[in-house]
Write a structure and sequence with these properties.
Order of helices and strands: HHHHHHHHHHH
Structural class: mainly alpha
Distance between the termini: 54 Å
Number of helices: 11
Radius of gyration: 25 Å
Function: Plays a role in the sugar gustatory response.
Shape: elongated
Protein name: Gustatory receptor
Membrane topology: Multi-pass membrane protein
Helix content: over 70%
Keywords: Cell membrane, Membrane, Receptor, Transducer, Transmembrane, Transmembrane helix
GO molecular function, one term: taste receptor activity
Number of domains: 1
Number of strands: 0
Strand content: under 5%
């Protein structure tokens, strides 16, 4: 997970010192470090520029739209994520040192673990960069079409209109605002990435216990072997619980975020359809003739769904791996059956090992269907509440003449 943590620190998340060192005893958190100061500045910036100003505009509006609701949820939730990762940083050194003790007693043998974490990190970040690039392209094309003499200023004022209501635009203010927006966009994706990487590690530890049982399948082994395997399983499940106590709040906000945004983006589609935006010129000289925003919105929604599915399915593998040993224990011959095996089976059946969202829900395989059902229910409620009737949107709008 080293790559994941280092990348997160570039955006003010988990500001722990010593992450590049192999010795976990050198990990430490202090408020008087450049990384922590950077994280605190990011929190203050997001709170003041992106939240406070928008709150003032939002509550002064008599009629709020789906877009304004999405913007409000986006900035508030991502500021909360940044704060949660600052809180995580205080507990991260102790957690890593505990993991180091487990590794010393029972080194992990999964040679693909680092590769899976790194590939997931790179893949999600590349897809997130593409999503942000499409959003920037959509805004820049609109600005270039309507105000070609001051493209960047028009883009900032159009993208963050609530800031311009309170302070006058300057180039420095535009750069700061855009930088904070990039931080929020990254944080939105990093929560899922972090959970995926943690889940890969926890699953590998539990699967390692199951592999030990599979290796002696059909063989007679002494009671001490089963006692040692059960102790390994206890260490792995205890690790899951310790990790869950530390990252439970991040799991909760991540799943809630994904659920809310899927609902809001579906509602946006029902309300507005997928269509071209109006042009300030006739004929339309834009590259995609106004479909830049439609391309961004479609990609963003698909990426959100895929990312939500990935984090749900990968995190649920922790629970699946914790149940796997029992099926092999059932196949132990009667002659080799002992009290340790019986205790092992009873322990697996009597305990639920899984990541949770602050104990409100457990991440199991069935959570995907539960989320899908919740989305359908909430979407019907939102459609009734807003009075939106799904219609087929026209393929294009009549362009405005200059």
């Amino acid at each position: 997970m080293k790559l994941t943590v280092i990348v997160g620190q570039c955006f003010g998340l988990n500001p722990v010192l010593g992450v590049c060192d192999i010795d976990t005893s050198k990990l430490r958190f202090t408020y008087f470090s450049v990384r922590c100061v950077y994280a605190l500045i990011a929190i203050v910036g997001q709170t003041v520029f992106l939240n406070c100003f928008f709150f003032i505009k939002y509550f002064n509006e008599t009629d709020t739209s789906v877009t304004s609701n999405s913007t409000l949820v986006f900035y508030v939730s991502n500021t909360i994520i940044t704060i949660l990762f600052l809180r995580l940083a205080k507990q991260w050194p102790q957690l890593c040192q505990y993991i180091s003790k487990i590794e010393a007693a029972d080194p992990i043998t999964d040679t693909t673990l680092v590769k899976k974490c790194n590939v997931s990190c790179i893949l999600i970040l590349v897809m997130a960069m593409l999503e942000h690039g499409l959003a920037e392209l959509s805004g820049m094309v609109m600005a270039a079409d309507c105000q070609p003499e001051k493209i960047y200023e028009t883009y900032i004022v159009h993208s963050f209109p609530w800031i311009n209501l309170h302070v006058n635009y300057t180039l420095f203010l535009g750069i700061i605002t855009q930088f904070l927006n990039i931080l929020c966009t990254f944080n939105w994706n990093f929560g899922d990435l972090f959970i995926i990487s943690i889940s890969f590690y926890l699953t590998s530890r539990l699967e390692q216990v199951n592999r030990k049982i599979v290796e002696v399948k059909g063989k007679y082994v002494p009671t001490t072997f089963w006692r040692n395997v059960r102790e390994d399983y206890n260490r792995a499940t205890d690790l899951v619980r310790r990790v869950d106590k530390v990252i439970g709040s991040i799991v909760f906000i991540s799943f809630a975020n994904n659920l809310i945004f899927i609902c809001l983006q579906l509602l946006h589609t029902f309300a507005n359809g997928i269509k071209a935006t109006n042009s300030c010129h006739n004929p339309d000289e834009r590259l995609l003739h106004g479909y830049e925003q439609a391309v961004y919105f479609t990609y963003s929604f698909l990426f959100l769904v895929v990312r939500s599915l990935a984090v749900s399915l990968i995190a649920s593998r922790v629970h699946t791996a914790s149940r796997q040993p029992v099926y092999n224990l059932y196949e132990v011959p009667s002659a080799a059956y002992c009290i340790e095996i019986q205790r092992f089976i009873e322990q697996i059946h009597g305990d639920t090992v899984a990541l949770t969202g602050l104990q409100f829900f457990k991440v199991k395989r069935g959570i995907v269907l539960a989320i899908a059902g919740t989305i359908v229910t909430y979407e019907l409620v939102l459609l009734q509440f807003t009075g939106i009737t799904p219609t087929v949107a026209p393929l294009d709008d009549t362009p405005q003449t200059n």
